Amino acid sequence: MALALAETRLPGRIERPEAGVLVQRLTTEGLAARDQYPYWKEAVCGIFVGLDCSREGQGPFHSAVLRRTFALEGGASASFIDVVSEAQRALRSPRQIRRAADACIMLAFQTRGPGLLRHGDDVAVLNPGDMVLYDSTRPYEFVFDRPFSQLVLKFPHERLAPRLPRVPNWIGRPVAASSPLGHVLAGHLAAVSSAIGHVEPALRPGLIDRTMDLIALTFTGAARDFAGAGSTAQAALVARAKHVIEARLADPALGPEDVAAALGVSSGYLHRLFHVAGTTVGTHIRCRRLERCRAELADPLHAGERVTEIALRWGFNDMPHFSRVFRAAFGMGPRDYRASVARTANPGA
Would you state the pLDDT for residue 10? Predict the structure, then answer.
C-alpha cells in the first residue's frame, strides 16, 4: 500500500521516507534557547492532534520526538511516536476537537518519569511501565512536572474503538506493566516498536492489526467496571467470550449458544452482558468476521484468492448476504473494496 512520503526541511525538523515509512524527527537541539519552546509548541500541535502546551519557567527546552507512520489497508495509517521532553502541560480543548479533521484513539506507554492524565472525570497517575488509552474526540490534559519519555501509538478511531467495550470505561484508566496482561502488552509494544521498521511492508498492517487486538484484550480484561456489568469477574467473562469468538471465527456454525457453552454459562446470561455493552453476541461475531475479510481483501499475500474463498474461510457461506453486510459495514462491496485498495497501493498502474 502506498503512503504519501515527502521531505521537508525546517529548523529542527526532518521528514523523510525510510523503507516505505514516513519518518518525522523533531528536535529543539540546534535552535537558539529563546526559540526552543516556541518551536516545540508548534511542532507538538502538528505531530499530535492539536494541543495547547505550556510550562513553568523560562530558559532552554531540550526535547525531541520521533514519529513513524505506517499505511493500513483502505488508505488509513497508524503511528508510533517516541517523545522525550522537559516538564510541561498539554491540553486537548473542545476548540481543537472541533477543528480536527480526523478522530483517533491513542495509547501512551510511560517509559520515564511520572505523568498525570485528566480525561473526563478520570485522573490517571502514570509511572514508568504504565499504559493508558485516550480519545482525541474528547478533552484531556497531560501534566508532566519532571522530564519524561513516552511511546505513543496512534490508531484510527474506527479501527480500534469497535474492539473495545461500547461503554467507554477504557478511557483514562491505566494498566500497569506489572499486571499479567499489562506485562504481555508492554513486552509486545516494545518488541513491535523496535522491529516493525524491519518487517516486510506487506506484513505491517497485519502486525498492527494484531497489536490492536492485544490492546483491546488487555484493556477489556483489566476494566474494573466493564460497561456497568458490576464486577471484575463479569469483565473477565466478557473478555473470555471474545477470546472464544476470535478462536472460532472460521466456524460458520458458531453462535451465542456455542460461546456460552464454552464458558459454562447460560446463553441468556451471556446475552445480558453483551447487551449492557451496547451490542449482541451475534453482532460481535459478524463484525469480527467482516474485519478479517476486509484485512485479507487488502492484503497482497491474499491477492490470488477469490473473494468467495476469503468469505468462506471466515464463516460466510451465503455470498449475497456477505456482499450486503460488507457493503453496509464499509460503504462498498468486497470486490470494489479490493479494487480500491489495489489502486491506492499502485496509483500509476
Answer: 43
